[in-house]
User: Which sequence fits this backbone?
């Protein structure tokens, strides 16, 4: 299934929900596992995003399920993000800034720092942010909704 097919699924999904939207743009990002973002431009963003992005997460999950059901078994499951009026983009930029700040604290104080609970996608972003950093190690800890990242300082002088 190509990006245009996924875009059509999203547009049909929004139409079935009777949500007005201006456009669904395809944005390719090589920095995050060569992911694709489907950016929905709409006036109904409050309805589609919901409290702390919960409705957007549910909407994204449903769209992923629909796409998954439409692909052949031989096809690889496409990796994509559904975003509304750049909500996810801004949220991920804030996450990156916070993770970088927490890593600096871990380096400065040479002590583990725990982040707030995050979704699996957000944890993957933080893990990938420090994958090539020899002074920082990241681990997921906790269960269910309390699962979060622990940022650990690695002393390279040992």
Assistant:
């Amino acid at each position: 299934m190509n990006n245009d097919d996924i875009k059509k699924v999203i547009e049909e999904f929004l139409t079935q929900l009777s949500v007005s939207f201006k456009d669904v743009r395809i944005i390719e990002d090589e920095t995050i596992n060569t992911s694709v973002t489907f950016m929905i431009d709409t006036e109904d963003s409050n309805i589609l995003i919901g409290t702390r992005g919960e409705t957007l997460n549910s909407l994204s999950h449903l769209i992923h399920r629909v796409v998954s059901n439409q692909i052949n078994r031989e096809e690889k499951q496409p990796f994509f993000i559904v975003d509304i009026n750049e909500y996810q983009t801004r949220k991920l930029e804030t996450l990156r800034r916070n993770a970088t700040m927490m890593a600096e604290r871990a380096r400065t104080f040479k002590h583990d720092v725990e982040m707030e609970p995050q979704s699996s996608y957000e944890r993957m972003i933080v893990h990938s942010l420090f994958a090539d950093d020899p002074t920082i190690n990241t681990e997921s800890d906790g269960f269910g909704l309390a699962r979060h990242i622990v940022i650990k300082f690695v002393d390279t002088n040992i």
Observations:
- The longest strand covers residues 23-29.
- Residues 48 and 59 are 8 Å apart (CA to CA).
